[in-house]
Amino acid sequence: MRQIDLTDIPIARVETTSSKGNQSKWNIDSKWYKMDCEGYEAFSEFISAEILKKSNISRYASYSLCKIVLHGVPYNGCVSDDFLQDGEELFTLERLVKQKFGFSLMGRLHEFDSVEQRVDFTLERLQELGVERAGEYLTALTEIDALLFNGDRHTNNIAFVRKNDGSIIPAPFFDQGNGLFSDLVWHPLHIENDALPMRAAAKPFSGDFDRQKEYLESLFGVQLRFSYTEKDLEKSLSQAEMYYSSKIIQRVRFLMKYQTKKYKELQMD
Questions:
Q1: CA–CA separation, 76 vs 176, rounded Å?
Q2: Helix (H, G, I), strand (E, B) or coil at 104
Q3: How many CB atoms lie within 10 A of CB 112?
Q4: Which among 34, 51, 111, 156 is placed 20 to 30 Å from 231, CA to CA?
Q5: What are 244-253's pLDDT values in tens digits?
Q6: pTM of the model
Q7: CA separation (Å) from 86 to 31, 32, 58, 115, 168?
Q8: CA distances (Å), origin 33, targets 11, 256, 259
Q9: Are the C-beta atoms of 254 and 194 separated by less than 8 Å?
């Protein structure tokens, strides 16, 4: 079990914040440490990375579970490498649009009536910003979010990297901490597992995961393909057993089996 004492290390201030509460984060020696806040966010990040390891996506943050010690008390968390290179800067979609066009994208999207209008408006702004393959990126993002029930993909949780030459590219896939109903304040463990899918709500283009995913796929095709098997899942869960209760393990097992059965079109042959 990996353990690190961060008692004397200041918490990092980052731009990508969650509307559901912010995980404490530390950047040390080119590694990011994130501590569970409302439930089992690190577990969700870990499962996301395990799936992406078995996928066609090459750029993603690879998370490992760990214990973060603060003032002698251990907390569950995760650790990943900092994917930014020297001179690169991470920007949220919200910030990019605000800087370039002077308005809040999050606010503007609420003015549209349909998923199609919200997606098209966002794609037009990204085209004006010169972001290559933005549509494919947003498609894959909505696919992994749907697979993991990640309902916190607002415009401050979609990120891009400004490179040294000024070009803007999609960031590696990261920030799936709100997936798998990890927020135990909103989704306490006494809720039956089979009732959880009915509580799912998506962002940023629709409250329905499939509506935003399917519209983007109609424009750019399926982008995410994975081969994460039931055997792979059990291997991941066995690593998490050192950190999380059997009830949380059982919940994640149920949800992942439910979703991989539902989204067969995302699975490699």
A1: 16
A2: coil
A3: 15
A4: 34
A5: 999 999 999 9
A6: 0.94
A7: 14, 16, 20, 37, 15
A8: 10, 25, 28
A9: yes
